[in-house]
Every structure is written in structure tokens, then in C-alpha cells.
Amino acid sequence: MSGAGEITCLPVAALSGATLQYNLQATPHGQICFVQHKQALVFLGFTARAADALEPIGRLWPIGKCARQDDLVLDFATPPPLHLHGTPYQHQVWRALCRLKEGQITSYGALALQLGSGARAIGGAVGANPIAWFVPCHRVLQKSGALGGYRWGLAVKRRLLSAENITTQ
To answer: 5 falls in which pLDDT band (50, 70, 90)?
Structure first.
């Protein structure tokens, strides 16, 4: 899996009256729910149930509608464009994550030094990442090499890292 496609900021107003399309898809790392606006990915999360994944979408874009499209398939070989809803600071952190190469890890502290920020603020932005896998927040570990947290669960984080031949404590 390579990095993300083009990343743009999508303001909430852009989805006024829009219908977002979503589907569930099995992956080697667990089932995902992904949501698209036109051809751009706005959300990707690991989940057993679509309702669990769609709940945060309703908080981010309460003015849009979500409709399941069973024939919608996410192609992991070709990263799609990403429309991310977040603060300018979150976008800065997410772009830094997308610059990490497959198999490359970093720490919250190292990202903080790189971006001139604090490790806790980095952790908050990493945890708010709405697009798992393509914005590789799973590649951020604690300074000690321990996994730290992961929005989608530590078992998923371990599987993603293992697939990149990354060993952790």
C-alpha cells in the first residue's frame, strides 16, 4: 500500500445536500467501511458494522446523506483523492503522515519536532484522522517503540504494521 492520493480540505458547506456513498469491504486487515463524495474518499474506518462507522460521519457532516452502494469497491493499488475535514493543524499532521514511506515508522515526539509542535497535540491530530490506511497513522509509535493507541484497535494496528514488515515491542 502506497501513500494517499491528492489531499484537499473539504469544508462542511461543500456537502450541503450531497449524498455520500458508502460500502463495506473485506480486507486482509479487517472489514472496512468507506465513504466517498463524488470520486474522493472522505472516510475509511475498520469496523464490523456500517452503523458504527457511519456515526462519526453524521457528526462531521450532519447536512449530508449517506447511501449504501453495494457495487462500490475501493481499489487499494491506486490511492484515491482524499477530501479531509479537519483543522489546518490536523491537515499539516496528516500530510506529514502521508510522506512516510511504506515500512517507515515515526514517533509522536519526532513528528512534534518536525512540525514544531507538542507530542500531545500530534497525538490528538493523529487520533482524529478520518481515513485509516491511506493516511498511515498506524506508523506512529511511542518513543519507546511501544504501539501506543490506535483509533481502530491495537489488533488492526499490529496487522497493518506486520504487513509492512514492521516489528514492534
So the answer is: low
pTM (2 d.p.) = 0.87
Angle at 53 between CA 41 and CA 158, to 5 degrees: 85
The more confident residue out of 113 and 43 is 113
Supply φ then ψ for residue 125, to 5 degrees.
-70, -40
- Confidence (pLDDT) at 13: 65
Residue 33 annotated to the active site: no
SS (H, E, C) 51-117: HHHHHHHHHHCCCCEEEECCCCCCCCCCCCCEEECCCHHHHHHHHHHHCCCCCCCEEHHHHHHHHCC
Annotated catalytic residue, options 33, 66, 98, 137 = 137
Residue 104 class from Cβ within 10 Å (0-12 exposed, 13-18 middle, 19+ buried)? exposed
